[in-house]
Amino acid sequence: MKLPNGFQSSGIVAGLKASSRPDLGLIYSSQALSWAMTSTTNSLKAPCVSRNRARYATDWPVRGLVVNSGNANCANGDQGIWDNEDFAGAVATSFGLPRVQDILTASTGIIGEKLPVEKITQAIPELIKTLEDDSSNFAEAILTTDTRTKQVAATLRNGVRIVGIAKGSGMIHPTMATMLAFVMTDADLPQGLLRELWPEIVNRSFNQVSVDGDTSPNDMAILLSSNHHPAAQQEFSEALEAVCQKLAEKIAADGEGASKLITVRVRGARTVEEARTAARQVAKSSLVKAAIHGNDPNWGRILSAVGTSGAVADQSSVLITLQGTVVYHGSPQDFEAAKLSSEMRENDVEIEINLAAGNENGIAWGCDLGPEYVHINADYHT
Predict the structure, then answer these.
(1) Which of 55, 71, 195, 332 lies deepest, with the highest CB count within 10 Å?
(2) Which domains does the chain have, with CATH numbers?
(3) pLDDT exceeding 70 applies to what percent of the chain?
């Protein structure tokens, strides 16, 4: 996928993964980049998250970011902190940048294993040599248990482009997860505005994804702008949110062992937060996810999950539809269970809940839960 003006990226095999798949990626710009960031709320944080947060507080622009997969470089004590700094330093030095802090870092993979900095350092020349204006190799290099890359693009009326790249398959839950998302644009908008827009867009997209209810110490979502072309704020904001929501869908659909994307829409809530919370509660419910995997139209699990969220004001008014079929409206509704079960065999399963308590709506994405999830995570380290 062609990158916005001012950006280059690359992705190579540095030997960090036993699978010999690409595991080192770089996004770079020859000019200063405005940026915005959100990151994990896990109290355990990898050095890449802590370092980027410290950099973020300065308001200084950056020039790019380097990412490794296959190793989280987390919980490694002081050694992990220095290894992360050396990781960034190797790239900054190769470009002759005056500040190591001009390069952000990100890591994803197994927690508690030493980062093989020597392999990374040796691979940096090739990483830089292979920079191009296409995102494909970078998108491949950041994957862990993902089965496919996740890339989405949008173009505004005046030609401004937005390109988003993400990874994430397991340990996915709202308030970030073991996901990384990097969104690039050539829109010329003040950094302050980007930082104002970004957290709320992340809340309406990446933070509405749940695969398994676990939150990683390495997640981050970063927005980078090369400021090449003027852009209308409203049009840009809407396009940016659309890109992020599509990436969120792709992450949910590629959940570990998943065969189905679950989209949960909540309507008629009293507050936006209540709507979002209720949608997330259904999307993350292991019982709902298992029922979807088995094509079981067990609406009681959906209703129970909504009740757990605290969003039900009047049980007699709640309406639930599954694949477009009304299954509950204050009381059980008659429907053809066998027919609905057959319709649930589709790759996309839609759940809609109307709380009839207000005017606010929310959406969340999840996936089904099957035995393959256990197999992947039982064998992940060994």
Answers:
(1) 71
(2) 8-247 (3.60.70.12), 261-378 (3.10.20.340)
(3) 94
